[in-house]
Design goal:
Order of helices and strands: HHHEHHEHEHHEHHEHEHHHH
Radius of gyration: 22 Å
Number of helices: 15
CATH topology of the largest domain: Rossmann fold
CATH superfamily of the largest domain: P-loop containing nucleotide triphosphate hydrolases
Bound molecules: adenosine-5'-triphosphate, magnesium ion
Number of strands: 6
Structural class: alpha/beta
Strand order of the largest sheet: 1-3-4-5-2-6
Largest sheet: 6 strands, mixed
CATH architecture of the largest domain: 3-Layer(aba) Sandwich
Length: about 325
């Protein structure tokens, strides 16, 4: 069954005549059912949505020129999944609040924050943040396929970029430019062929002119190589880092939940310092799988310490 929150949002979007949101909610209900194993009902909902699309109902329809460049997702992530410093949490809450109350802000000639640059080490939650903003704001997440944008259409990249920015006005959503340095690197300025420079200049111009209601998110783990002209085009720059002790502890507790046996996490936390959220999450999953496969009920201290150490070794092996 769909949650009452989903039903409420479906009704709300229906009465507000918000076709995009209605479709996005219906697809979220389908995804919710699919995750619970109710595949038949999920498919039925999906096919109802598809039928209504072909009937001309205003829904998410990707321009065919960019349909392989922009992948839509309907995440249901929420802010409490993210283990993060209070400062970052406050910034994300502010983006969410300003979006939800944007009418109020706009009446005074101001804009809600919606052009956001996320920077920081790999595995610290940048991509997850884009899913969370999308989930919290009930907006589809559109992920721009950077490799296709940048290589396949070399020579046409600026034109494709224009189409993506046009889409931001017609299809409200969260647009994620992951590995943003591919577009924004400073060295593009000195690019001999001029193509990279054209792309960077086009992006600078488009993002400056953009007055859509979509959120534009750039994510990079190499902010130092970005062209400085980019920075003032973003409303917020948020820097992520590997978790501190307190955060490591919360992350382990969130990831293992009831499977965590009762023991002090002190030793494990001090061992895990320096690992990213993603690496700690993988260590927790490894411990969880081992526990399930050996028919045990709880993840023990010994096992978790071992999977954490394995992750450190893995990291040193490849690093
Ligand atoms: N701050 C966090 N809080 C909770 N879980 C996290 C956090 N960061 C990462 N994770 C876990 O690690 C996974 C991978 O993280 P994510 O893809 O967001 O990293 P990223 O910062 O985008 O890394 P990259 O720079 O390599 O793209 C997430 O799906 C989540 O399970
Ligand atoms: Mg990422």
């Amino acid at each position: 069954m769909a949650t009452s929150e989903q039903i409420k949002l479906l009704l709300e979007s229906h009465y507000k005549n918000d076709g995009d949101r209605f479709t996005s909610m219906a697809l979220q209900v389908a995804a919710h059912e699919a995750r619970k194993g109710n595949i038949i009902i999920a498919k039925e909902i999906k096919s109802l949505v598809d039928k209504s699309r072909s009937g001309g109902f205003k829904v998410i329809r990707l321009n065919k020129d960019i349909s392989d460049l922009v992948l839509p997702y309907y995440p249901e992530n929420s802010l409490n999944e993210l283990v993060i410093s209070n400062e970052i949490k406050r910034k994300l809450e502010r983006i969410i609040k300003e979006y939800k109350l944007r009418d109020k802000i706009q009446k005074h000639g101001l804009e809600n924050r919606r052009k956001i640059l996320l920077s920081g080490k790999p595995g610290t939650g940048k991509t997850l943040t884009a899913s969370i903003l999308s989930g919290e704001l009930k907006l589809p997440l559109y992920v721009i396929m950077m490799d296709k944008l940048m290589t396949k259409y070399m020579g046409e990249t600026a034109t494709k970029l224009r189409l993506i920015f046009d889409m931001m006005s017609s299809n409200r959503g969260v647009y994620l430019f992951d590995e943003f340095d591919a577009i924004g690197a400073e060295r593009a300025r000195d690019n001999e062929v001029g193509e990279m420079r054209r792309v960077l200049n086009a992006f600078l111009q488009f993002i400056e002119q953009d007055s859509s209601e979509s959120l534009i998110i750039g994510a990079t783990n190499n902010i130092n190589i970005l062209d400085s002209a980019l920075f003032r085009r973003f409303d917020d720059i948020i820097t992520y880092s590997v978790p501190e002790e307190k955060e490591i502890e919360s992350l382990i507790k969130i990831k293992l939940g009831n499977y965590l046996a009762k023991f002090s996490l002190k030793k494990i936390v001090s061992t895990a310092i320096g690992l990213s959220h993603a690496e700690i999450t993988s260590a927790c999953n490894d411990a969880l799988k081992e526990t399930i496969l050996t028919d045990k009920e709880k993840v023990t201290q010994k096992l978790l310490l071992q999977t954490i150490i394995d992750r450190i070794m893995y990291y040193t092996d490849i690093g």
